[in-house]
Specification:
The chain has 372 residues and is α+β, with helices and mostly antiparallel strands. The protein is 50% helix and 10% strand. The chain has 11 helices and 6 strands. The strands form 2 sheets. Strands 3-4-2-5 form a 4-stranded antiparallel beta sheet. Strands 1-6 form a two-stranded antiparallel ribbon. A hairpin with a 3-residue loop joins strand 3 and strand 4. Helix 2 runs parallel beside helix 5, helix 2 packs antiparallel against helix 8 and helix 5 runs antiparallel to helix 8.
Length: 372
């Protein structure tokens, strides 16, 4: 709102709202005003930048929350600080960052700096998250092969070299998954499923809740017939050949994947921490730019305003709105009566309209990102 009598105006706001909300000063710098046409143009551009910056910032937070390993989850509030402050504390003590955004620059120039920052952050995020996601996906796919049911999982961890006839010109050992309720049927008939199956060659290798893993040895030339006849009885012959070299290679692949993921994790989290902080800082400065721009467009010059940040107490937002309208309704009679908006310029009707300039700083994404 337009500044009137300095500290008395602030004291009046604080006294009237302290029972309904947490109230703090939101310090705006003296920015270059420029022309009315330029301000009106920047009003639209800043609204778009506000939405874009928030979108990228929330992506960073959500990705960080869902990427943190279990041991780090409780540290999430520490990982998402801005200037070493939690988000609310940073907003309550907000000060314009002159080093990043010199006030000697025009509003458009500051807008362009923030837009460039956020575009780079989003581009880097896409690259880094894609690389890490691929590492994680490949590792998960390999791990699933070790933990699925007997029809799909990797059998290398379940069998031993002595379970197989190896390096034979004529014989081969097959691994067969048998439903547990058909165990007797298998044991009494497996050598009859094809010609040249070796009797008494079947061994129970592994069992789980409802499936059994057996071996059976036969001549290589009869393997395909054996597979076909076994399938008709719901015995699944796995496509598995024991090879110590292949098994060692698979173990090495998984080890290398784990190492690559573990190596990539710390720098990724560090980058997310730093760039979420940067994105939130950019976002609050966009809010400040919008607050200044809309205030000048609404109230004109001189560009001297009292600005504050208010967080309503639970179930107090309606009463707080009513109190603010009683304090500042004289600034705009149409806004004070929400049923009569006919004389309000169209450029202000992009959302809820009040006699004071208002923008929402919504940090609900913190609570919505992940259930703990």
């Amino acid at each position: 709102v337009p500044r009137e009598d300095g500290q008395q105006q602030w004291a009046r706001l604080h006294e009237n709202t302290k029972a309904l909300a947490t109230v703090a000063k939101f310090n705006l710098p003296n920015l270059k005003v420029g022309t009315l046409d330029a301000l009106m143009s920047m009003s639209d551009d800043l609204a778009k930048l506000d939405g874009y910056t928030e979108q990228v910032m929330v992506k960073l937070y959500n990705y960080l929350a869902h990427t943190l390993e279990e041991d780090d989850l409780l540290k999430l509030p520490d990982f998402t600080k801005v200037n070493n402050k939690d988000l609310k504390s940073y907003c309550y003590t907000y000060i314009w960052d002159v080093a990043k955004f010199p006030t000697k620059l025009s509003i458009k120039e500051i807008h362009d700096i923030i837009a460039k920052n956020m575009t780079k952050i989003e581009k880097d995020f896409k690259s880094k998250s894609t690389t890490f996601n691929n590492l994680k996906t490949n590792l998960i796919q390999h791990q699933k092969k070790e933990t699925g049911n007997l029809v799909t999982r990797n059998l290398a961890a379940l069998v031993k070299e002595e379970d197989f006839v190896n390096e034979s010109e004529y014989l081969v050992t097959a691994c067969v998954v048998v439903p547990k309720n058909q165990a007797k049927e298998w044991e009494n008939s497996y050598w009859k499923l094809a010609d040249f199956v070796v009797p008494h060659s079947s061994e129970l290798i592994y069992e789980e809740a409802d499936q059994l893993l057996y071996t059976a040895t036969m001549f290589k030339k009869t393997l395909e017939a054996f597979k076909h006849n076994a399938r008709e009885r719901k015995f699944i012959v796995r496509d598995f050949t024991f090879s110590r070299t292949v098994i060692e290679q698979q173990k090495l692949e998984v080890t290398n994947m784990e190492r690559a993921k573990n190596k990539a994790y710390p720098p990724l989290i560090k980058w997310l921490k730093g760039n979420f902080s940067e994105a939130f800082l950019n976002w609050t400065h966009v809010k400040a730019l919008r607050l200044f721009t809309e205030s000048v467009l609404r109230y004109g010059l001189p560009a001297t305003f009292m600005t504050a940040i208010l967080e309503p107490n639970k179930k107090s937002e309606k009463k707080l709105r009513e109190k603010l309208t009683s304090l500042y309704g004289n600034l705009d009679k149409n806004a004070a009566d929400s049923t009569d908006l006919g004389d309000i310029p169209a450029m202000f009707l992009t959302g809820d309209y009040y006699p004071y300039v208002y923008f929402d700083v919504n940090t609900a994404f913190v609570d919505n990102a992940r259930e703990f």
